[in-house]
Amino acid sequence: MIPYSRHTIKKDDVSEVVKVLKSNFLTQGPLTSNFENTIKNYAGANYAVSANSATSALHIACLALDLTKDDIVWTVPNSFVASANCALYCGSKIDFVDINTNTYNIDCDLLEEKLIKAKKLNSLPKVIIPVHFAGQPTEQEKIWKLSKRYGFKIIEDASHSLGAHRNGEKVGSCKWSDICVFSFHAIKIITTGEGGIALTNSKKISKKMRIFSSHGIVKPLLGGSKKKFKYYYDQKLLGLNYRMNEIEAALGISQLKRIDQIVKKRNIMAKRYNKLFEDTHIKIPTILKENLSTFHLYQVHFHPLLNRSKFNYFFEYMYKRKIYTTIHYQPIHLLSYYKKLGFKKGMFPNAEQHSNSCFAVPLYDSLKISEQKKIVKTIKNFFINI
Ligand SMILES: *Cc1c(COP(=O)(O)O)cnc(C)c1O
């Protein structure tokens, strides 16, 4: 079976993890802060707070921006549920902005239209969470400009885009956002098993995220004068235990050494797909010329005339031929939990159309050229046969 994605673990990764297992610290040791420093230096941000998943990182990001039940958060419908759930964890209201039909990222014109309307209705969002879909950076500088005009904060969900850049500016530098979150889930660009991180250039935000990630407790402090030793800690806020451990951090540090190589290789493989899909009805991904994508997903578009039942049959056809293709994503607003909140079919037509006609073809480090050819040939055969 060819999966749609697969992690890559090298010998060095294994030996770094084994070293931790033989060391004095499994949690709250030096490697977690080492990992944070390496990531923030790589991306060019001032502060980094690691977490046990990107979901947790998104949650502490929302908490640090003081989201409450009186606030509204906007994200896009074609993302993983965590991009929206994090707002609901804070009791805030969630709404969505439709995507651009070329990049499948948040559509900045639709965003502006929605902001104009929201301003009139006095229902502007406090936070917007753009998602770098499939690893392609969002048009962050435009969103940043709008954030200044309409007074919202930005959390980038960059779960797909560690190693991507736009106009030479690395994703994660937070030049055009308040916080940027990466995921290290097994199938993301690099992995720690499970894990995530939130980057920011604000000392205040980073401090808050740190406290929320560790029970709301302020680190054990040396109290009193320098001579008198007094040990104590205090809980300032209602926090959680979202900390990353040393085993995960060691794996992350080791994997991060290869990041540029990984992104380069994924781009080469994506270009190969582009060529193989020439002269077919398949629409290949559009990457804006300012952007370098990580190709976390190689997502293609079906012939628009293909109806839904044939589209469903496609997955079965591929599966029977031992190739696993997937949809990214089923629109969040049409999932049962969100429909109960009042969202309906037809509200975000671009995202809905996208999910009805797009699929991701397998792309991972160990995927062979012969397998890429087999995948495309199988897809071509499907079209000949329907
Ligand atoms: C994977 C993913 C997440 C969640 O990441 P975890 O580390 O698994 O919690 C959030 N948003 C997007 C867009 C993702 O792809």
What are the main properties of this structure?
14 strands, 3-stranded antiparallel sheet, alpha/beta, about 375 residues, binds pyridoxal-5'-phosphate, 7-stranded mixed sheet, globular, 13 helices, single chain
Explain this structure to me?
With 386 residues, the protein is α/β, with parallel strands linked by helices. Helix content is 39%, strand content 15%. It has 13 helices and 14 strands. It has helices at residues 11-21, 30-43, 54-64, 82-89, 108-120, 140-150, 203-212, 246-256, 259-276, 308-320, 336-339, 349-357, 369-385, and strands at residues 47-51, 72-75, 93-96, 127-129, 153-157, 165-166, 169-170, 179-183, 196-200, 217-222, 231-235, 291-292, 298-301, 358-361. The strands form 4 sheets. It has a 7-stranded mixed beta sheet, sandwiched between helices. Strands 7-6-12 form a 3-stranded antiparallel beta sheet, with no helix packed on it. Helix 3 crosses helix 4 (82-89). It is globular and about 80 Å long. The chain starts with 10 loop residues before the first helix and ends with a helix. The mean pLDDT is 95.
